[in-house]
Task: structure prediction
Amino acid sequence: MEVLETIQKRRTIRIPFNERKVLKRDLDVLLEISRLSPNGDPVSWELVSVEDYATKSRLAQIVEDDFGDVFQKDSQKFRRVFSQYPRWMHFSEAKAKDGVVLDKPKFAKYFYNFALGKTFGPLFGKLGIMNSEFKAYCKNIINNPLLFGVFRNRHFNAGSAGIASLVNTGSMLQNLRLTATSLGLCYQDIGWITATKESSEKARQLLKMPEDYVAINFFRIGYIDDLDRRSQNPNFRSAFRRDLKDIVNFGKFGNKNFEVAQMRRTDLEVLDAIRGRKAERVSKPVSKDELGYILEAARWAPSGFNVQPFEFVVIEQEDGASIAVLENMERRDPDPGPCEALAKGGVLQNIRLAARALGLNTEIKKPALSEEESLRQTLYIPKNYSLLSLIEL
Ligand SMILES: Cc1cc2nc3c(=O)[nH]c(=O)nc-3n(C[C@H](O)[C@H](O)[C@H](O)COP(=O)(O)O)c2cc1C
Result:
């Protein structure tokens, strides 16, 4: 499957998976991909497969207990998280371009909209309005042919290098999501197990990982009946993202006149791109359509609660182009844990893969503080945006 096609087609699948086993040949591909470092740095993660029913059930119990403790006993934290839900959870078909939709029967939608409003949300939350969602979520931890824990070695924890290794792990996860999509498999991140330090630590102990390791994410892979038919349904696909013209700035922040005449396709298969292959390149300058291809790939990156914090400034140069990747600090994940850093890796990986499909190299840099200040001034980056990376194409 072609690179951008896979990126656009990939979706988080939240319904129960059926009992079909994942073929050994597909599992081998997934494991091979999980060992590739997306940017050449040493691999800092370890995947742990969770196979038996009893262990999966105990992981699900950890989430249920955590939900009980955090949300129903610690009222301050509960309010903080819950007061964000109305912003990122929608109970009717997505008119919005961000957040997630919880499908509810028609009559219930009005009630949910009211009950999760800012005023009554915390009250209804305490009364357990979200309990059935959490129960369904916990069932997904149990019902799947493949469940993996993602661990990182604490030695990679220190300072900015620590963040970089977490971002790199996020790129690896995006590779796995795309690999699953290209193999016709379904994928869901199970970030709740690692959303708090307490539950992450319980998961580490349960899986008997040494103290040097910390659990940063879980994900499940499997099949559902009728994926192709269901994929046609826009609600099932949660097919909404902010428009390119809202997130792309041209030359400087605020210049929103970026339009792409035609969204192109390339000849590069996503698995080849993930393995590091790059298409042959004939023309030198990077065209607007090519920038559109790369930014469209960036737009479809997954983020916790679909908060889509990433925005871009494109800087055209004579023999190439650069993309400044910004993070809108007003679009924070309600309960992030390591999720925000992992999401950064997803957007960077989509850009890398799209560039490879066009035969372009990417150099992804985190500008030094002094350089960052001058870039912020030249590009008119507002204070509530952080500069994640500068990517040279
Ligand atoms: C690091 C990370 C953690 C996530 N954790 C969860 C999760 O715990 N449960 C879930 O259903 N989706 C999770 N998601 C998926 C996002 O909610 C999803 O990507 C977003 O809503 C956009 O939808 P899409 O993936 O279908 O495009 C996670 C995504 C990322 C990047």
In short: The chain has a mean pLDDT of 89. The chain has two domains: 17-83+118-223, 244-392. The radius of gyration is 21 Å.
